[in-house]
Amino acid sequence: MRPTFSSRFHWDLRPNRLAQAVEKKRRTGAQILDLTESNPTRAGFDYPAGEILAAFADPRALVYEPAPAGLREGREAVAAYYAARGCRVEPERILLTASTSESYAWLFKLVAYAGDEVLVPRPSYPLFEFLAQMESVRVAQYPLVYHDGWSIDLDAVARAITARTRAIVLVNPNNPTGSFVKRHELEKLAALGAERSLALISDEVFADYAFGEVATRVPSLAGVDAALTFSLSGLSKVAGLPQMKLGWMVVSGPPAVRAQAIERLELIADTYLSVGTPVQHALPKLLAAGVKVQREIATRLRGNLEWLRTALGRDSPGQLLNVEGGWYATLRVPRTMSEEEWCLTLLEQDSVLVQPGFFYDFESEAFLVLSLLTPPETFRHGVERIAARL
């Protein structure tokens, strides 16, 4: 008997041409210079293993005491994380989740009925459509535009709002453009949220990886009070520990609506109780151990970015777009080939793997996305081959 599946799964699950080419290349035994690495635990960092493992030696981990919003100790550790960055966040405004993806799922449940929509940036991380569709929510896009730097097209945001719009998603800094939300942009977005009863959802997982300090940037939306706002982050990027499966959200906005949101979120959380007790008790020590990891990651990001600037040079046909933070860099390359053809050529002829811009819904071609997390030797050899190909 043929099974019946829900309409949430409408995607073509077959591997794309690039994935097929990678698999074919690997079957030949060829060494690929992979410039797409996004997993910090496979990127050669020196983790303080003793500190991390010792964090789980707490006997309280053997006792199950479910707390929907998360154990108080863990929420206080997150509050201290924000305090160290100059942002006051009370533990009562924090909810622990298993990941940022789970935070999105909870928030889409909270703010949207089936068939409602959320606005997401373009270009950006391609996960939103999957997460929204699995909650029976539609995605509509608003553009980021580039003029010597990325900015939000605020007029386009306003035009994209419909009667079914429930939230505006921000990624701060954006993945992969690396652009931060600016203060004047936040002012207008918060006013829109307040006027149209829309929530702001700010994904801030890369916020600790800024390249330099710029006064016009918004480091976090955790202090917004004009509109209902949710700031998301977690151990995955903050401490380079994606395997620990712990994220969080900070709820901000007018006190009355904020309290209503927290009450409902706790009900959702109580339904799933997904965050493990051991990692909650370990959280203060994991955040402390993550300081060293974060510093090491930041050093690599800056080093690889500087190498990329130098390798391309002023006369290169490829342009490195301005990046303010995060783990990625974007190259604009000549439109002599499509992005797919660029990626396939680099893979098949130069053994270099990069991502095409259409993976992130860039409006036009041709863009290539490189991970600055890549181990330096691999990154440099790969970039040299890209520069030669250009």
Number of strands: 14
Give the count of structural domains.
Answer: 2
CATH class of the largest domain reads Alpha Beta
Provide a count of the helices: 12
| Percent range of helical residues | 25-40%
Q: What is the architecture of the largest domain at the second tier of CATH?
A: 3-Layer(aba) Sandwich
How would a crystallographer describe the biggest sheet?
A: 8 strands, mixed
Percent range for β-strand residues = 15-25%
Assembly type of the shown chains? single chain
Order of the strands making up the biggest sheet? 2-9-8-7-6-3-4-5
Might you state the CATH topology name of the largest domain? Aspartate Aminotransferase, domain 2
What does this 3D model show about the protein?
The protein is an alpha/beta fold. The chain has two domains: 17-46 and 290-389, Aspartate Aminotransferase, domain 1 (Alpha-Beta Complex); 49-288, Type I PLP-dependent aspartate aminotransferase-like (Major domain) (Aspartate Aminotransferase, domain 2), CATH 3.40.640.10. The chain has helices at residues 17-27, 49-54, 72-83, 100-111, 127-134, 154-160, 183-196, 235-238, 255-272, 277-312, 339-350, 376-389; strands spanning 33-34, 94-97, 117-122, 138-146, 150-152, 165-171, 199-203, 229-234, 247-252, 319-320, 328-332, 352-353, 355-356, 367-371. The strands form three sheets. It has an eight-stranded mixed β-sheet with strand order 2-9-8-7-6-3-4-5, with helices on both faces. Helix 7 (183-196) links the parallel strand 6 and strand 7 (199-203). The chain is globular and about 60 Å long. The model has no long low-confidence stretch (mean pLDDT 96).
